[in-house]
Design goal:
The complex is a heterotrimer of chains A (332), B (169) and C (455). Chain B has 169 residues and is mainly alpha-helical. Chain B has helices at 10-33, 35-39, 50-76, 84-89, 93-112, 114-133, 138-163. Chain B contains seven helices and no strands. In chain C, helix 5 runs antiparallel to helix 18. The chains are: A alpha/beta (332), B mainly alpha (169), C mainly alpha (455).
C-alpha cells in the first residue's frame, strides 16, 4: 500500500505547512507592547455604503488618516435599524483598534429592540454634529408658513399626511415631537428610508415630510416643495433663508446627530489618544470644508460633553417613545 | 430541474407536503409567541399580523392538500415500484458531512483566520472528492488538491480580501 | 453588490471619472450577474434569478457558450434601448412614474407575483407554496410600519431580516454544490467542444421581437421607483412563455426565455436612472448606491439637474453607452474563457464555488450571521430540489414580499382603512384585473387545470 503511505505523508506536509502559516499569521497579530496605534484601525459604519452615515464616516476616516502612520479601514455593518453595527463594535476587543460611528438611532433602539445595546454598553468619545430635521410641504398645498401649517392641522386633525421613517426612526421621532410641541395631530405614514419619502412627497401621496434639509433642498429651489422651518438651534447653512422653529415660536429641536464611539474597557492611554485624534480631525478646517460640501453640520464635542448631550437626548426622547407605545425593553 | 410534464409520485406529494407543513408549523408557532402581533391596535393599518396569517393559511392548506392528495392516490392505487424513500436518502451522507465541515470551517475562520481554515477546508474536500471519483493516481489527485487549494484560496483572498477589503482575516 | 463594494474606490476620483467607473461597474455587474447565473446557477442580481431558469438549463445541456452569447446580445440591445428611452423621454417617463403611489406599487407587486406563479417551471401549485415560504422569509425581522419584530425566534441574528444575497447564494449556489458533492460531479461536467455552439446570426435574428418586447418592458418597469428589475424580468418571462409555441419546454433551455428577461433586466438600468436623473429619487438599491456616489462628489441630482448641469447629464449618457459597449466587447472576447473555466475538474470547481458562497454571503453586510443563513438556505434548496419543489419563487417571494406588505398597509393608512383605494385608482385596478385574468385564464381554457395539485 505504498500510495496510502505517500498520501498520508503528503497530508502531513500539508498540515505542517498550514500550522506554520497559522503561527506566522498569529504572530503578526500579537505585536504586543508597541506604541499605539501600530496596526490598522477599523471604523465601523452602522448603515450601508452610500448613505449619509457612510459618507460622513469615510470623510472622517480620510482626514483622521492624515494624522496617523497607520491606515483606517471603513467597513459597513448594517442591519436592525443600525443596532447590528453598534453591537459589532460593542462586542469587539476593547484594544482601541475598532472604532464606530452611530447616530440617534442608538437611543431609540435600546427601548424598541430588546437585543440592541444600551447607551451604557458603549463609550462615546466625540460628537460629530447634528443633522437637524426640517418640515417640508408640497407647494401646491397652499401652505406657505409654519403658522398656516399648524392652523390647517388644528382645524382638521389627521388631515395632513406626513411621510417619515418607521416608528423609532429619526424622522418619525421628529414628526411625533412636532405633533407634541405644536399641539397638532397628523397622519404619520411610514416609508423605508429617505428616498421613498422624497418620492412620495413629489408624487403627492403625502402633503408634508420631516426629512433633513439636504434631502429636499433641490426640490425647494425648483419650487416643488416649501421648506417651512428647520428644527435646530441655528439656521442651516444650506438654506440660510429658512427660519428655525424656535424663531417661529415653536420650541422644537429634533433630528439626527452623529457620534464616534468605542467599546467599553479600552485602555485609558489608547482612549485618550483616539479622543484627541478625532477631536483634532473634526476641528480641522479642511475637514470641515469637505464635510460642508457633503451637507453635514460639524459641531465637535469632547467625550464628556458628548455623554451629557446624549443623556439629555435620552431624557427627552423616553417619554415620547413611551407615549407612542414604542418602549418594549428597558423600562425606566 | 424537475420534469414539468411528469406527474408526481404520491409519496413525493406526501414528502413535499410535509416539508411545507413544517414551515407553516414553525411560522404559526413563532407568530403565536409574538404577543405584540395580536394585542396591539394599529388604527387604519391592518397591523403586522394580516399578511403572516394570510400567507400561513395558504401555506398550511396547500401543504395539507399535498399530503391528502398523496395519501388518496396511495389508497386508490398503491404505487408499484419500491424504493422511493431510500432514493431520497441514498446519497445524503456526503452532503451532510459537507455541511457539517462547512459550519466548522466558518467557525474556524474566526479563530485561526481565513487563509488557514480555507486552505484546510479546500484541500481536504478536493482530495476527498477526487479520491471518491477515483480518477487518476493518488499522486495526481494530491497535486490537483494542492493546486486547486492554492489557486482557489489565493484568488479569493486576492480579489475579496486584498483588493476589495472584505474584513475576513 | 459589486457597486456597493466598489463605491469606496471612487471616493478619490474626479466626479466624471467616478461616474464613468460606476456606470461601467453598474452595467458590467448586471451582465456579470447573468454569467454566474448561467454557469454556476448563482444569480448575481435579482433579475438574474429568471435568467438561470433557462440559462443554467442550457449549461446543463452543454450549451453554456450559446446561453452566454444570447444573454450578451440581448443584454446589450436591452441596455441600449433603455439608454435611448432615458435620453429621449426621461421627463415623460418620470411623469408617468409619478402616477405610481402605494396602491399602484401594491398591485404591481401582486401582478409580478402572479406572473411568476404562472410561469415557474414545474408545478404551479408548488410554485405558489414555494412563493409563500419566500413571503414568510421576507417577514422575518422588524416590520416597517409598526417596528414589531416578527419570526425572529428571540435572536438578534434574525431581527435584521434575511438578506437577498445570502438567501440566493445558498438556495441556488450552495444547493448546487451539495448536489455536486452527492453525485461527485457538476451537471455541467461534460462540456462539449466549443465549436459550432455560438449561435449563428440567423438564430439571433429570430429573437429580435423577444428582445424588443423585453427591452420596452424593462425600460418602463425600471422607471417606476422601487418596482425594480425583479418584476420586469418576471413579467417578461411569463410573456415569452405565453407567446411561445414551445411553452411546455420552458425550463429546459429555451432561448426566448433567456433573451426576453435578459433584455428587460438590462433595459432596467436606463429605466432606473430616469427617476434618479429627473427627480433625484433612486429607483432601486443599485441606483441608491449610485446616488450616494454622486452626493459624495458634490453633485445633487434633482429636478434642476438637467438645466443646471447639462454637461453632467451628457456625461452620464456617454458613460452608460461606453459601459455597455465595453461590457459587450469584453463579454464577447471572454465568453469562451468563461466557458473554459467550467472545464476545471468538477471537484475543484465545486469547492471553489463553496468558498465563494461563504465569502460572498459575508461580504454583503460583513456579518457572519449571513453566512449561517446562506448555509441554512443551501440545505433548504437541496431538500426542495429533492422534493421537486421549485426554488425560484421562494427568492422572488423574499424580494417582493416586503414591497407588497409595506405598500399594501401604507395604502390603507393613507385611505384611512378603505380597501376601495385599490379599485378607485385606474392603474391599480388595471393591474389587479390583469393579475386576476392571468390567474383565471388557464382555468377558462382548461377548467380542471387551475392550480391542479398533480401537475
Amino acid at each position: 500500500m505504498h500510495f496510502t503511505s505517500r498520501f498520508r505523508g503528503s497530508v502531513a506536509i500539508m498540515v505542517l505547512t498550514v500550522t506554520t502559516l497559522t503561527m506566522i499569521l498569529g504572530a503578526c497579530d500579537r505585536q504586543a507592547e508597541e506604541p499605539f496605534p501600530s496596526n490598522p484601525i477599523t471604523l465601523v459604519v452602522n448603515w450601508p455604503a452610500g448613505g449619509g452615515m457612510d459618507r460622513i464616516g469615510r470623510v472622517i476616516a480620510e482626514y483622521a488618516r492624515r494624522r496617523l502612520d497607520v491606515p483606517i479601514a471603513v467597513i459597513n455593518v448594517s442591519g436592525a435599524g443600525g443596532a447590528s453595527g453598534v453591537r459589532h463594535v460593542a462586542d469587539s476587543d476593547p484594544d482601541g483598534y475598532t472604532v464606530g460611528i452611530l447616530g440617534a438611532s442608538l437611543v431609540a433602539s435600546q427601548y424598541i429592540n430588546p437585543n440592541a445595546n444600551a447607551i451604557d454598553d458603549i463609550d462615546l468619545i466625540a460628537l460629530v454634529g447634528p443633522d437637524p430635521a426640517a418640515l417640508e410641504v408640497r407647494s401646491d398645498s397652499g401652505i406657505n408658513s409654519l403658522a398656516e401649517y399648524v392652523q390647517r392641522a388644528q382645524s382638521n386633525p389627521r388631515s395632513i399626511k406626513n411621510g417619515n421613517d418607521a416608528p423609532g426612526g429619526v424622522s418619525h421621532i421628529a414628526a411625533t415631537l412636532l405633533e407634541r410641541s405644536a399641539n397638532i395631530e397628523l397622519t404619520l405614514v411610514p416609508y423605508r428610508g429617505y428616498a421613498p419619502t422624497v418620492a412620495a412627497i413629489l408624487s403627492g401621496e403625502i402633503q408634508s415630510s420631516t426629512l433633513p434639509v439636504h434631502q429636499l433642498i433641490e426640490q425647494h429651489k425648483a419650487g416643488e416643495v416649501n421648506i417651512l422651518g428647520v428644527m435646530s438651534e441655528e439656521r442651516h447653512f444650506m438654506a440660510p433663508d429658512i427660519p428655525t422653529f424656535k424663531e417661529q415660536g415653536i420650541d422644537l429641536v429634533a433630528g439626527d446627530w452623529r457620534a464616534i464611539f468605542l467599546p467599553n474597557g479600552v485602555p485609558d492611554d489608547h482612549r485618550a489618544f483616539l479622543e484627541a485624534l478625532f477631536l483634532e480631525t473634526l476641528n480641522d478646517p479642511d475637514f470641515q470644508a469637505a464635510a460642508e460640501q457633503l451637507s453635514f453640520f460639524i459641531t465637535p464635542m469632547t467625550a464628556a460633553d458628548t455623554k451629557r448631550f446624549v443623556e439629555a437626548f435620552d431624557q427627552e426622547l423616553y417619554p415620547v417613545l413611551l407615549e407612542a407605545g414604542l418602549v418594549r425593553a428597558r423600562h425606566k | 430541474m424537475p420534469d414539468p410534464s411528469r406527474s408526481h409520485d404520491p409519496r413525493n406529494q406526501i414528502a413535499a407536503g410535509s416539508f411545507l407543513g413544517i414551515w407553516s408549523a414553525i411560522g404559526w408557532w413563532s407568530a403565536a409567541r409574538t404577543t405584540s402581533l395580536w394585542t396591539v391596535e394599529y388604527g387604519a393599518d391592518p397591523g403586522p399580523v394580516l399578511l403572516p396569517i394570510l400567507v400561513l393559511t395558504i401555506l398550511s392548506l396547500g401543504a395539507l392538500a399535498l399530503v391528502a392528495e398523496g395519501t388518496r392516490q396511495i389508497l386508490v392505487e398503491p404505487p408499484t415500484h419500491k424504493g422511493y424513500w431510500s432514493s431520497l436518502r441514498r446519497y445524503t451522507l456526503t452532503p451532510v458531512l459537507f455541511i457539517a465541515s462547512l459550519l466548522a470551517y466558518v467557525i474556524a475562520i474566526e479563530f485561526i483566520g481565513f487563509i488557514p481554515s480555507s486552505s484546510v477546508f479546500a484541500f481536504v474536500w478536493i482530495a476527498a472528492l477526487g479520491f471518491k471519483i477515483g480518477e487518476g493516481a493518488p499522486r495526481t489527485l494530491f497535486f490537483m488538491a494542492i493546486a486547486g487549494t492554492l489557486i482557489g484560496v489565493g484568488l479569493i483572498y486576492f480579489v475579496f480580501i486584498y483588493l476589495i477589503g472584505v474584513p475576513l482575516r | 453588490m459589486a457597486l456597493a463594494i466598489l463605491l469606496p474606490v471612487t471616493y478619490a476620483m474626479s466626479p466624471i471619472a467616478a461616474m464613468v467607473f460606476l456606470m461601467a461597474v453598474f452595467s458590467a455587474s448586471v451582465f456579470g450577474g447573468s454569467i454566474s447565473a448561467i454557469l454556476i446557477n448563482i444569480p448575481g442580481t435579482p433579475g438574474a434569478i429568471v435568467t438561470q431558469l433557462e440559462g443554467y438549463a442550457m449549461t446543463c445541456r452543454g450549451k453554456a457558450s450559446e446561453a452566454l452569447t444570447y444573454s450578451l446580445f440581448s443584454s446589450t440591445i436591452g441596455g441600449i434601448i433603455g439608454l435611448i428611452i432615458l435620453m429621449l423621454v426621461a421627463p415623460i417617463v418620470a411623469g408617468a412614474a409619478m402616477q405610481f403611489r402605494s396602491p399602484e406599487f401594491t398591485m404591481a407587486t401582486v401582478f409580478g407575483l402572479t406572473m411568476l406563479a404562472y410561469s415557474t417551471p414545474g408545478s404551479t401549485f408548488r410554485g405558489v407554496l414555494s412563493g409563500a415560504v419566500g413571503l414568510l422569509c421576507g417577514m422575518v425581522g422588524f416590520d416597517l410600519v409598526t417596528d414589531v419584530s416578527r419570526f425572529d425566534f428571540g435572536t438578534s441574528a434574525l431581527q435584521s431580516g434575511i438578506e437577498l444575497v445570502p438567501l440566493t447564494v445558498g438556495l441556488f449556489g450552495l444547493a448546487e454544490v451539495l448536489r455536486g458533492v452527492e453525485n461527485n460531479t457538476t451537471q455541467t461536467d461534460r462540456t462539449p467542444p466549443l465549436k459550432a455552439l455560438t449561435p449563428s446570426f440567423a438564430q439571433l435574428k429570430r429573437l429580435w421581437k423577444t428582445i424588443l418586447r423585453g427591452s420596452a418592458l424593462g425600460a418602463i418597469v425600471g422607471a417606476i421607483p422601487a418596482a425594480g428589475s425583479a418584476i420586469a424580468v418576471a413579467v417578461s418571462y411569463a410573456q415569452e412563455k405565453r407567446l411561445s409555441k414551445r411553452a411546455d419546454e420552458f425550463g429546459t433551455g429555451v432561448p426566448e426565455g433567456l433573451a426576453g428577461p435578459e433584455a428587460a433586466n438590462n433595459a432596467c438600468v436606463g429605466g432606473a436612472l430616469v427617476p434618479l436623473m429627473t427627480l433625484g429619487i433612486p429607483g432601486d438599491t443599485m441606483t441608491a448606491v449610485l446616488m450616494g456616489a454622486l452626493l459624495i462628489h458634490g453633485l445633487r441630482p434633482g429636478p434642476l439637474l438637467f438645466t443646471e448641469r447639462p454637461d453632467f447629464v451628457a456625461t452620464v449618457y456617454v458613460a452608460l453607452f461606453l459601459a455597455l459597449l465595453l461590457t459587450f466587447v469584453l463579454g464577447f472576447l471572454l465568453i469562451r474563457h468563461f466557458v473554459r473555466l467550467m472545464r476545471t475538474p468538477s471537484h475543484i470547481l465545486l469547492i471553489i464555488i463553496a468558498l465563494l458562497c461563504v465569502v460572498g454571503a459575508f461580504a454583503i453586510r460583513n456579518n457572519v450571521t449571513d453566512v449561517y443563513i446562506m448555509i441554512a438556505f443551501g440545505v433548504i434548496g437541496y431538500v426542495m430540489n429533492k422534493l421537486e419543489i421549485p426554488v425560484a419563487p421562494l427568492a422572488f417571494g423574499l424580494i417582493l414580499g416586503p414591497i407588497l406588505e409595506e405598500n399594501l398597509r401604507r395604502s390603507l393608512i393613507i385611505s384611512d382603512g378603505s380597501w376601495m383605494v385599490f379599485i378607485e385608482r385606474p392603474i391599480a385596478l388595471t393591474m389587479l384585473l390583469l393579475s386576476l385574468g392571468a390567474l383565471f385564464y388557464p382555468f377558462l381554457r382548461n377548467p380542471g387545470k387551475l392550480l391542479s395539485i398533480n401537475q
